[in-house]
Amino acid sequence: MTVETLGGYLREQRVNAKLSLRQLAEQAGVSNPYLSQIERGLRRPSAEVLQQLAKALRISAEQVYVQAGILSPDDDQVRSVELAVLADPVLSERQKQALLAVYQSFRAEAALNEPDQPESDTAGPETSVSNDAPHPTPTQNVRGEDSAAANTTEGN
């Protein structure tokens, strides 16, 4: 989703609601020039501004978030996590976006690593879970070397 298509979507919703740019800006609590820039695709609004616009347009904030590319359009479980992050009043807008980006990258990585896994979380009686790769201990780094040994060789 591009900023231009989001702006076009918001403009279409405004026209369908029979609101002028000035009326929507006033109802959403944003400036008229800022809303104009959003509609023309020059500015990317925050999740909070999108929520205010959705409320003023009397449409679902989720719809607007999907159009903005903030929420995943398909998976309800994913959407509930994303909505929880967006609804957190303690996090800043930047923190919310960073957290969503990390969450989405973890999901993408998991999908690449396990493409044919069944959707069930429970293993059947004939299925055993094994992890062939040993986990590094607190005194080992990721390559499995002892930290103390690695530190002594680095200075040489």
What secondary-structure arrangement, pairings included, does this model have?
Blueprint lengths: L2 H14 L4 H8 L3 H8 L7 H11 L3 H8 L7 H12 L5 H21 L33 H8 L2
Helix pairs in contact: 2-3, 2-4, 4-5
Protein name: Helix-turn-helix domain-containing protein
Pfam families: HTH_3
GO molecular function: DNA binding; DNA-binding transcription factor activity
Can you give me a brief rundown of this structure?
The chain has 156 residues and is an all-alpha fold. The protein is built from 8 helices and no strands. The protein folds into 2 domains: 70 residues, Orthogonal Bundle (434 Repressor (Amino-terminal Domain)); 42 residues.
Description:
The chain folds into two domains: 70 residues, 434 Repressor (Amino-terminal Domain) (Orthogonal Bundle), CATH 1.10.260.40; 42 residues. The protein is built from eight helices and no strands. Helix 4 packs across helix 5. The C terminus is likely disordered. Keywords: DNA-binding. It holds the Pfam family HTH_3. InterPro entries: Cro/C1-type_HTH (IPR001387), Lambda_DNA-bd_dom_sf (IPR010982), TransReg_Diox_bact_type (IPR050807). It comes from Nocardioides marmoriginsengisoli.
| Helicity level | 55-70%
Architecture of the largest domain, CATH level 2?
A: Orthogonal Bundle
Number of strands: 0
Distance between the termini: 52 Å
Mean pLDDT: 76
- Label the overall shape: elongated
CATH level-3 fold name of the largest domain: 434 Repressor (Amino-terminal Domain)
The CATH class of the largest domain is identified as: Mainly Alpha
Structural class: mainly alpha
Helical segment tally?
Answer: 8
Radius of gyration: 23 Å
Tell me about the biggest sheet? none
Number of domains: 2
The CATH superfamily of the largest domain is known as lambda repressor-like DNA-binding domains
Sheet-strand content, in percent, reads under 5%
Unreliable residue runs: 120-156
User: What is the string of helix and strand elements?
Assistant: HHHHHHHH
